[in-house]
Structures are given as C-alpha cells and as structure tokens.
Amino acid sequence: MTAGALTGDSLIESPSLAELAAGRISELVFRGELRPDERLVEEHLCERLGVSRAPVREGLRILEGSGLVVRRPRAGVRVAGLTQNDVFEILTFREGLERMAVEHLYRYTDDVTTVDTSRLDAALAQLAHEFEDGENQYGRIQASYEFHTELVRLCGNARIIASYTQITMQVKLCMSLNLRKLAAEETPAENVTRHRDLRAAVLSGDLTEALRAIDEHGHDSFAHEFLEGLPGATENSARWLARRSRTPV
After folding, report:
1. Which conformational region is residue 219 in: left (phi greater than 0), alpha (psi within -120 to 50 degrees), or beta?
2. Which of 14, 16, 59, 197 pairs with 238 at a CA distance of 20 to 30 A?
3. In Å, how far from its chain's centre is CA 185?
4. What pTM value is reported for the model?
5. Long-range contacts, 38-47 (Cβ 8 Å, 24+)
6. Residue 154's Cα: distance from chain center in Å?
7. CA dist., res. 242 & res. 225, Å (int)
8. Last residue of some domain: 38, 56, 79?
9. Rounded to an integer, what distance in angstroms lies between the CA atom of residue 105 and that of residue 102?
10. Do 11 and 101 reside in the same domain of the chain?
C-alpha cells in the first residue's frame, strides 16, 4: 500500500520517510545545530534521526535540489555555505519577486482593499505569537517565511508563487544566520510591528506606498553586522550593501 490515506473521493498523500528526513535535517540547520559548510555524514544523521540510510540519502538529495546542501567531489555532502554574494543574489531575487507579486496584485485586482486576507492574517498572528510569546528560533523562521509566502500568494499568479517557494530553503538559511545578529538591533515587538506595517501598506490601495514598504522592509530585515561579516564579497554585493547602509531606517 502506498503512503497515503483515502478520504472520500480524494487520496491524501502523507510525507515519505525521505521527505520527513529532509524536513528534520533542514530543521537542524535552521536551529544552528548543523552549521554552514559542515559535512553531513549519513551514518551520524541516521543515528540522530532514528532512520535507516535510504531515507537519509534520499532526503539529502531533496535538500540538494533546494540548494540547502551541496555535494562536492572528494568533500562529500555539506550544508551550503553563504558568501556575501550568495546572500545578495538570494535577497535581491526574493525582494524582486515580492515586488512583482504586489504589482501583479494591483494590476489585476479591482480593489486591493477587498481581497481575502484570512490566510495572511493567520500567518501574521502566528508570527506575533512566535516573536512575542516564544523563544524558538526555528518557529520564528517558519512564521516569518509563512507570512511572506502568504503575502506573495495574494497575487494569485501560480508561477510567481512557485518561483518564490523554490528559494524557500535558501532564504530560511539566510534568516537562520541573521536572526542571531538581528536580535541586537531589533526587539521581537519591533519585528512584529514591522510586519504589521508591511501588511497595511501592501493592502492600502496605494501601489507606490506598497512598493516603498517592500523595499524598506527588505532593508530592515537583515542585520548589517551579519551582512558585513560574510566572506566572498563581489563588486555587485559590495555596491548593494553600501546602498543598504545609506538607506534611512
């Protein structure tokens, strides 16, 4: 019998062991228990996760496809490292997709102020809970990404949404390393307020205000100490970082 349960006329697929292993490994990365560039030994992961080698091996392949782990000749499988240029490319791509989603929402919606925001509001409530009532970094990362994903979903364009979800793991890796630094620059309450303000601006009915909020939110989301301390700067990433440093907070 295949993994899944038959409910009525629909087949509800349950996660495979490989998918569950991939999820647990990614959680260890985002919690900081597996560090960037750390070698991932299948035997050790099997002991840690309590599963056999086959699902661990397949789980690593899943994560390799998402960009969270990399396979190098004679170096094995490792957690992806992050250079300043990597973060520059990931974050500018993410911000570009968010701008595209907002522009699409305004262009093809009669009245932005009337769209269904129930999923977005639920994600915002979860974000507020994780930041104001909890101290779980993984929960905060999950909640932050879910909020932004639901914001993008408002556009209704399946291809924009798919492009956004494709970089999930890479964005979360950036977030996991950044949150430790960001805590020194921003309180949990300030983080929640910043996300509430973003929601209000995007749904204000004013496209110029919505895009300005997207740009400023992206600027404020990442600690300068985190970005400046990364190796592997390029001319483009240095120019980008200098521009962010000049932007009023």
Report:
1. alpha
2. 197
3. 20
4. 0.85
5. 38/78, 38/79, 39/75, 39/76, 39/77, 39/78, 40/69, 40/76, 40/77, 40/78, 40/79, 41/76, 45/21
6. 17
7. 13
8. 79
9. 5
10. no
Give yes or no for a contact between 178 and 222, defined as CB atoms under 8 angstroms apart.
Answer: yes
| 61-102 tens-digit pLDDT | 999 999 999 999 888 999 999 999 999 999 999 999 999 999
Main-chain phi, psi angles of 78, to 5 degrees: -135, 155
Domain that residue 183 falls in = 84-246
Contact 236, 87 (CB under 8 A): no
pLDDT digits (tens, 9 = 90+) for 168-180: 999 999 988 887 6
* CATH number of the domain within which 195 lies: 1.20.120.530
Low-confidence ranges of the chain (pLDDT < 70): 1-14, 180, 184, 220, 245-249
Bridge partners for 92 per DSSP: none
Q: Give the N- to C-terminal CA distance of the chain in Å, as an integer.
A: 56
Query: Do the beta carbons of residue 164 and residue 74 sit within 8 Å?
Result: no
Q: What pLDDT shows up at residue 193?
A: 96
| 30 in the same domain as 102 | no
Which H or E element spans position 224?
Answer: helix 224-228
Residue 7 pairs in a beta bridge with: 10
